Amino acid sequence: MDVLVIHLINALLYASVLFLIAGGLSLIYGVMRIVNMAHGNLYAFGAYVTAWAIGRFAAGASMALLLVLLPAGAFAAAVLGAALEPTLLRPFYKRAEEYQLLVTFGLLMILEDLMRFIWGPYPLSASEVFENFGSLTIGDSLYPTYNFLVIGVGILAAFFLWAFIYKTRFGIVLRATSQNMRMASALGVNVNRVYIQAFTLGCFMAGLGGAIIVPGQSAVLGMGIDAVVLAFIVVVIGGLGSLEGALVGALIVGVVRETGIAWFPEVELAVLYLAAAIVLLVRPAGLFGRP
Amino acid sequence: MSTPAVTESAIARGSGSRRHVLRGAVAAAGLLAVVPWVVPPYTAILLTYGLIMAIGALGFNLLLGYTGLLSFGHSAYFGVGAYVVALMVKYVRVGSMELFLLGAIIGSAIVTAVFGWVCVRYTRIFFSILTLALSQVLWSLAFKFFWVTGGTDGLRVPTPSLLGGLVTGKGDKTDFMSHAYYYYVLVIFFACVVLMWVIVNSPFGKALQAIRDNETRAEFVGVQIWRYRFVAFLVSGVFTGLAGALWVPLNGLTTPDIIHWSFSGEIVFMTVLGGFRSFAGPIIGAVVFNYLKTYAVGYTVYWQLLLGVVLVVLVLSLPTGIVGTAERLAARWRRES
Is position B253 within any domain? Predict the structure, then answer.
């Protein structure tokens, strides 16, 4: 019984992080109609910055300071996103989608090596935070308390994002731009500004995903490349451009992955990719996508 | 997509007569034929890698350049070609290159048919993501089923015998690869180029280009879009699978890395580098990319950074690639003189 509970919590943990990555990817696609192949690298960037910040101040620092440092990666990713959008992506909105994929693929290669350059080829960990939280007992087994924080952040992020997009003025502008960019522009929306805000927000979410997962795991090279493919699967299942879809997709992938790790580890990844292919076959636009 | 530069180069290409193309091809063939006798073996082997990748990129470009579908999963078919050969060595214990090629063609045709059946229902970004996801299925299988595929250690492939045992690599491997195997690859390369040339200039190829330029109109005049795209996908995948089969004896080892989607990215990269709007683009691009990557890897550990910058600059300022840019410059030079 408690094994099942632990598996369920793990699935939620996994889904939380995936939602943060895929939600950002989907938001960016929904508003800007651009698929950012380098999105996973922003997640990795967030992880590295947080691990670096915590590693630098960890010795003797209080728990409160460590928790304040935790979101550093999210803000760093947001700043990076705000710098990238106007310089690298803006020239491509009027060009064919293929070029957008190519330029973000180039960006992926660049960011991957920049992280290698800055932080070296070895994994960077921030386990102090993870250990400070200790563990609690579920049935007969110990379970790290920190994981609940990650799930909490995931749920909070989903809630704030929903409130932000459906309850604020900025959200209305964002949705209007997403539905009809020309019309929004004609009605006086500064589309360039909306784009940069949406991209920054998406990158912030990816960075936050990296920042909260890094104490439990560690920042390694290639984590972004692996993550972006999983994020693709989430948005393909949920529907590109839909946040509800990203949430449901992340939950589905989280549960499938956890089930896979427990019962069929050899084909766990294959099952995930196949699930995405099947969803696309049955519902081409994804579960929540606009056809 | 039809920027002035593209139309211009299209006109330049159209005005070049068949004889012009033939003369260029014969000159290239002559040059390539003497390469092993004038350059060091290392350079010849590098060029062999380049020619093999050119076959793969040529196949890939049937989809991107002629059908307008950007596949981010061509590593899968390359990997199938390579792994079929490696598994034939491991389980059937054959060593004949011709059998390898036959096996790889059959294997990649089966996989491409299944994947293509799923993928060609979609276009644009969905096609790209779907091909990517499916290629990752194969990657994860090659990665996890280590008792069959060797996992990350990969599978070793010894030097094969060519032409039904007539030529064997018993002696020096470097010598064999830079001479006998080079010519073997060169002949297959030319066969593939001719075949692809025939395909893209056939009514079938013209129909693909019609679909690329305007799907609705093509359907209106009676082109069965789904079927044409499927056949293009199949041909494209088999070309890339053939390249994988030729690649693996040269490399001596196949690992799951060649199925990973970042390798698909490299195939896309070389095609764009050469220029996907021209027939020769992927060939030039593959050979150049191969040198570029080899030297970048040898020069710095940050070779990805270097290649990434090249790709971004290329897409930003030279979207028609090396061949397209050269054609444009040649056209301007001809006008001025």
Answer: yes
Nearest to A157 by CA among A234, A219, A241, A247: A247
Averaged pLDDT for residues A215-228: 84
Pick A109's closest partner by Cβ from B118, B134, B305: B305
Nearest to B43 by CA among B327, B242, B294, B301: B294
Which one, of A82, A5, A87, A101, lies nearest residue B272 by Cα? A101
DSSP tag of B216? H
Q: How far apart are CA B308 and CA B166, in angstroms?
A: 44
- The answer to whether residue B331 is domain-embedded is no
Q: Is the pTM of this model over 0.90?
A: no
Q: Is the pLDDT of residue B16 over 70?
A: no
3-class DSSP assignment, residue A259: helix
Residue type, A156: L
- pLDDT-derived band at A291 (thresholds 50, 70, 90) equals low
Of B126, B145, B268, the CB nearest to A266: B145
Q: What contacts 24+ positions apart, CB below 8 Å, involve B34-38?
A: B35/B182, B36/B178, B36/B179, B36/B182, B36/B183
Classified as helix, coil or strand, A138 is: strand
A284 touches B at CB < 8 Å: yes
Rounded to whole angstroms, the Cα distance separating B41 from B29 reads 19
Between residues A141 and A60, which one has the greater pLDDT? A141
Nearest to A283 by CA among A242, A254, A251: A242
Lowest mean pLDDT among A159-173, B90-104, B165-179, B276-290: B165-179
Residue A219 φ then ψ, to 5° = -85, 120
User: Do B259 and B79 form a contact (C-beta atoms < 8 A)?
Assistant: yes
Interface of chain B toward chain A, CB-CB under 8 angstroms? 1, 64, 70, 72, 118, 121-122, 124-126, 128-130, 132-134, 136-137, 140-141, 143-145, 261-262, 265, 268-269, 272, 301-305, 307-312, 315-316, 319
Q: Is residue B308 one of the residues assigned to a domain?
A: no
Residue environment code for A31-49, b if the CB has 16+ CB neighbours within 10 A, otherwise e:
bbebbbbbbbbbbbbbbbb
Residue B274 lies in a domain: no
- Range of B50's domain? 35-259
CB atoms within 10 A of CB A16: 26
Helices and strands, counts by H and E, chain B = 16, 2
B6 band by pLDDT with thresholds 50, 70 and 90: very low
Task: Record the tokens describing residue B213, joined without a space.
Answer: 């330029």
Q: Do A102 and B315 touch (CB under 8 A)?
A: yes
CA nearest neighbour of A244 among A188, A200, A290, A185: A290
Q: Which residue has the higher pLDDT, B234 or B17?
A: B234
Q: How far is CA B171 from the centre of its chain?
A: 30
The total of structural domains in chain B comes to 1
The beta-carbon neighbor of B137 closest among A99, A109, A270 is A270
Question: 3-state class of A103 per DSSP?
Answer: helix
User: What does the alpha-carbon distance between residue B4 and residue B320 come to, in Å, rounded to a whole number?
Assistant: 11
